[in-house]
Amino acid sequence: MAPRPAEELGYKPLDGGWGWMVVFGAHISIGFAYSTSKALSIFYKAIQEDLGASYSETAWISSIMLAAMYAGGPVSSILVNRFGSRPIVILGGLMCGLSMATASFGSSIIYIYFFIGVIGGFGLSLNLNASLTIISKYFLIKRPLANGLAMAGSPVFLCFLAPLNQYLLDKFGWRGSLLILGGLILNCCVAGALMRPVIPPGKPSSCAPQKMVEEQPRQCNTKLKQSCMKNAKFLDLSFFKDRGFIIYLIGNVMFIFGAYAPIVFLSAYAIDQGVEEYSAAYLLTIMGFVDMFVRPGTGLLASSKWIRPRIQYFFSFAMVFNGTCHLLCPLMKSYPLLVVYAVFFGISFGMVFALIFECLMDLMGNQRFPSAVGLVTIIECFPMLLGPPTAGLLVDIFADYKYLFLMCGSVIAAGGLFLFVMNIYNYHMLEKEKTAKDRQHNQKTIENQGQVSVSEAEMKHTFEAAVEQTEPEVKDKSGAQTDPRPEDAETPSI
């Protein structure tokens, strides 16, 4: 979201102090929100054997969870505006922790869909949105740094959750692992407790003049109306008239469709290639570790004077790079080669997610970005919901993981090429429209100047006529005025 100026907040954020504890809490909350659905893939093979489910059926668990996390964004925003971030993060942690514990007693895949996917996913959406919102209230100047540290929770938690889940699976089975994982997620409640509300300094005292007290309801009503207007524009469908937004949305949907299936099935693919289970789980750890450093590095590179004007093309390159990595994955048969794939996967994945919202802000601007990102995340629910199950269906049909990676890689690479070509077209059309607009503006300026010249000529003509009319009177005063009647005119008789 675009940072709000201090005068719009009504106070100047401290940019530090207790705010760093809030960042620590957001780091935990966001870390669980983004990594839980990925790390659950460790349990899929055991769930398949216990419940008799297929690859595509188990893949729906992460898909439903991610879709619910994104779809719950508008509801989470309303709750945060009404009750604040602290109770909402605590509520989200309770929902997600209890849903994991309850799912451990499940006897059918539908049972797990509901508790882990729907309830757990919605709980994660409460954690995510509330954490991002409160950071904006504690930080202004240092807000990019604070957001970067908070968002780093995703790869950091993925680094240790993947091997931890494998250890828990070996010791306690998938049911005991879900129960313990639910207890770990309850730490989001502790993280929420750190998010105490911001108390703006310099509140008016009780002995304030009566006039100030009378003006408060009017100011509150004004703020309420402004808030309602912002909420009303949250799903502004006029964005579909913007050519740049449509191009971005199509490319983004193609990326999201193929982005998460390789993460979900990476460990299972490595095990299928004969890799030991712990080593297979560490592939996700390697990917998360690389991703942890690539995201801020990509942000610094994108801020340079060479990349910044071409950031849309840089985003296209990152998508093509990511898709190419997946297309080459079926060639990686040994564990060292799979480690190389995990490293390049982490680089390309981190590059894309470091740029994905920055490119939207570059297109829409700071003012329109909040409404645009709300619309994008809701539309992303559908490819996020369908991507992993479609990939799992390919595994069920062909009994081979290579078709999964080929599908995801081709879709993502095609999306990157689409963005590259269409951005060239979009910038060409924008330049053409700008030239036409400037030409029209210049033509109007010339017409206005012509009208001014005509007006000046008319004024000059009017002035000369007025001077001519006043000349007889001037002659009369000097004694040179003659009778205006003709000499041969007859004098009327009396």
TrEMBL record:
Gene Ontology cellular component annotations, sorted alphabetically: basolateral plasma membrane
Name by which UniProt lists this protein: Monocarboxylate transporter 2-like
Compartmental location: Basolateral cell membrane
Pfam families noted in UniProt: MFS_1 (PF07690)
Membrane-crossing segments per the record: 21-47, 59-80, 87-105, 111-132, 144-164, 176-195, 245-269, 281-301, 313-333, 339-360, 372-391, 403-425
Composition bias, Basic and acidic residues: 472-488
An example molecular function term from Gene Ontology annotations: symporter activity
Family to which this protein belongs: Belongs to the major facilitator superfamily. Monocarboxylate porter (TC 2.A.1.13) family.
InterPro entries given in the database record: MCT, MFS, MFS_dom, MFS_trans_sf, Proton-linked_MCT
Alphabetized UniProt keyword annotations: Cell membrane, Membrane, Symport, Transmembrane, Transmembrane helix, Transport
Catalytic activity: 4-methyl-2-oxopentanoate(out) + H(+)(out) = 4-methyl-2-oxopentanoate(in) + H(+)(in); 3-methyl-2-oxobutanoate(out) + H(+)(out) = 3-methyl-2-oxobutanoate(in) + H(+)(in)
